[in-house]
Predict the structure.
Amino acid sequence: MPAKIYTDKDADLKVLQGKTCAVIGFGSQGHAHALNLKDSKVKVIIGLYKGSKSRPVAKKLGFEVLDTADAVKKADVIFVAVPDTKIKEVYEADIAPNLTEGKTLLFSHGFAIHFKTITPPENVNVIMVAPKGPGHIVRRQFTEGKGVPALIAVHQDPGKNAKKIALAWAKGVGGTRGGVFQTTFKEETETDLFGEQTVLCGGVTALIKAGYETLVEAGYQPEMAYFECLHEMKLIVDLINESGIAGMRFSISETAEYGDVTVGPKIIDASVKRRMKTALKRIQNGQFAQEWVDEYEAGQKNFDQIRKDEAEHGIEKVGKRLRNLMPWIKKRSLKGAQATYS
């Protein structure tokens, strides 16, 4: 049975009229939701810790900025837009003591609720609005009159209005323009983690690097390996995004298509799918979540070392030099973005 798709006509922004919506954190999703809601005429305040570098940024954009605890006290709807690993400490210190009956807790990812790193009281709504795209795309699409499709879910509904609030929020950030799909915290969390780990991030980057290394080790120029294994990836993915896999195959040469259908399955074979199933089981039984929480609480030394090693990979050095020759490619300073929205 096809999923029900909610659009603009199914959501009413009036549900948020007279309410104060607090965005806790001003990172990728936080700043996008806040700005889109503000443009949708919703009253938005920002909750940040003392000393946050995002305070002057949010104030400059016209928001009232409060300490996190004060924002929670003042708000009717509280969007927890801090990293999964930080939610517990922020919740226990500033959110939980100030939650009162009738308030709504909102998340853009189900990790903390599904894996029970926090347990909200039963007298508050707990909902999710999860745009299927990074924050800067959520913002850009909105300003262009478009919208990133979104998921909604209801975990608790003591007020009997949780779904209406979720749909209104989704409309306020542009989700109903692209289509909104109802799911559960469990389904969103497990499928999101699986996609990130095995296909969208982990799978793609591992495949790119393996291809690059294979060509370089065979004696080909690093520049050629970069273009063939990384640069053209976007072109292929854009075709898939626009027309599906079949549409992409229609657009490429017959030689490329034949190589796709005959060699691709030999590289990404049944053994890969078996390992994907193992990865999914580790997500479903909570092993991955516990490993990640333990890594964070131990100071994430292993993670930081992996980050350092990955940044020094040859493909990064070659890529930076080649991208500098292509002024039409938009450059992003990731460290700068983190500093701006931390």
